[in-house]
Amino acid sequence: MNEDTLALLPDSDAAPAPAPAGRERLAALDVGSNSIRLLVAEYDPAAGLTVVDEVKDQPRLAHGVAATGYLDTAAIERAMAGLARMRVVCQRRGVRRIAAVATSAVREAANGEAFVQRVRDELGIPLRVIDAETEAALSWRSVAHHFRMDGARTIVADIGGGSLELIGAVDGLVESTISLPLGAVRLTETHLSRGKDPRREVETLRRHVRKVLRKGFPWREWTNPVFVGSGGTFTNLGRMAIGRRGLPVPDSIHGSSVPTGEVEQLLEWLCTRTAEQRRNVVGLNPERADIILAGLAVTAELLDLADARSVTVSAFGLREGLLLEMAGATTPAGNDPLRALREFVERCQGDRRHVEQVRYLALQLYDQLGEVLGCTPEERQLLEAAALLHDVGQLVSYRRHHRHSYQLIMHADRLPLSPRDRGIVALVSRYHRKSGPKKKHEEFGEMESPDQAIVRRLSSLLRLADGLDRGHTAVVETVQSELTDDRLTVRVGPRLSNADLSLELWGASRKSDVLSKLLGRDVAVVTAS
């Protein structure tokens, strides 16, 4: 797809903020059926997308389209005002190219083309209508950029205001895409705006949704898939689920998972709330309180038909897909599940050789000692993530970079980690140097005991691995662990036969304290004979 190019001239009273040398500043604008969203970013092949700004408005262009076939006049004016503001943001951010697309509501409305032309004429924004297949492909590109897709059957669902896009992929390759008229705004207007008992209305709506879904997608071929949800319904679902558990709602919900049973319970509970009461639900955007029932009804039916155990939330969608396409980024086939972590390290100007070496050594130690320590298979991936991310805090300062690493990991918006896994990885990274885990440390003390045990185990291995690359020279090739009743001996082999390992032996010995305590044995780090 070839995007239109827009040269955005600065306002006379404000000069545009320049992009860093060698980087082009891009913008993606999604004129959806419920919301209009702008994303301004820079792209680097190594660091990926770096978000510069984002703006959201909610003119609800889909309002009335299902009943009248036309975009509502008031909704058009709200959209024009929002787009004008977004154009100013692009001007002041120094955007040189913008891709702007309109989806379901504008695509279906009889006056949709007139609206597109008005946007072009009055605002100079090269808005164009995309078909449902292109819309699904852009959403898929974004999801595939953030999640590992190889070796699995995956369904990606994007619930918009006017339509539902479904993408089915096997081993990272798309096999089926379909668009269905099951958007949250559309269904709310046609099934949930009659002033009746919400529970009965939702029951009727679900029967309608199920009928449409059964006819529209080959469910027998997609039983028990990995299920990923993209769009406002799913991000709000993730936030509400965490809020209902009595936990603080994190800044980023990306990568979190909500079990199917919890979706059903949340929908049932929301049906007992009035629209005004729903506006005060923890984790729910008040502007979505009137359409969330429809969105969750579609979600519940999707999960049931697919026999999926849970839905994983993607915080990114069509806009990011547009940016990746504009930048010429290739669509990955899922062969690098650590891509998003490595991109974050690049954005934090990390020492890639060092963190890759620490990852390499930490996994060797895990494979040799993990069973003795009581590690579970999932912990290997958490250790791998912490090894890559442990030094990102040096972006802020060296002296306390372990603590800064914790904060950066906890607040990063593009890491494919659930809130629980993010907390574990952040703390394992925090404890790669200085003192080990202590209950008097607030973040560690507030963790549940099983997760505290994971942090102790993984930080003990990460500390040793980090010490084995004390000089950031990747001079260590192998580690071999030998466990006896009173001692753990770690024999270290160099990459080159004449390499000096004295600094690495010293660094690892100093950082063996947590591992020694867990094993109840002294730890000796020596050169392999």
Structural account:
This protein has 529 residues and is an alpha/beta fold. The protein has three domains: 25-130, ATPase, nucleotide binding domain (Nucleotidyltransferase, domain 5, 2-Layer Sandwich); 133-318, Exopolyphosphatase. Domain 2 (Nucleotidyltransferase, domain 5, 2-Layer Sandwich); 339-527, Hypothetical protein af1432, CATH 1.10.3210.10. The protein has helices spanning 65-68, 73-92, 104-108, 112-123, 132-146, 184-191, 198-216, 232-244, 260-270, 275-278, 292-306, 318-326, 339-347, 352-373, 378-389, 401-411, 419-430, 442-445, 449-467, 502-510, 513-519, and strands spanning 25-31, 36-44, 48-57, 97-102, 127-129, 153-159, 164-170, 173-180, 226-230, 257-259, 310-314, 476-483, 487-494, 522-527. A six-stranded mixed β-sheet has the order 8-7-6-9-11-10, with helices on both faces. A five-stranded mixed β-sheet has the order 3-2-1-4-5, with helices on both faces. Strands 12-13-14 form a three-stranded mixed β-sheet, with helices on one face. β7 (164-170) and β8 (173-180) form a beta hairpin. The longest helix is centred in the last third of the chain and has 22 residues, at 352-373. It is elongated, with a radius of gyration of 26 Å.
List the helices and strands and how they pair.
Elements: E1 25-31, E2 36-44, E3 48-57, H1 65-68, H2 73-92, E4 97-102, H3 104-108, H4 112-123, E5 127-129, H5 132-146, E6 153-159, E7 164-170, E8 173-180, H6 184-191, H7 198-216, E9 226-230, H8 232-244, E10 257-259, H9 260-270, H10 275-278, H11 292-306, E11 310-314, H12 318-326, H13 339-347, H14 352-373, H15 378-389, H16 401-411, H17 419-430, H18 442-445, H19 449-467, E12 476-483, E13 487-494, H20 502-510, H21 513-519, E14 522-527
Parallel strand pairs: 1-4, 4-5, 6-9, 9-11, 13-14
Antiparallel strand pairs: 1-2, 2-3, 6-7, 7-8, 10-11, 12-13
Helix pairs in contact: 5-12, 6-11, 7-11, 8-11, 9-11, 14-15, 14-19, 15-17, 15-19, 16-17, 17-19, 19-20, 19-21
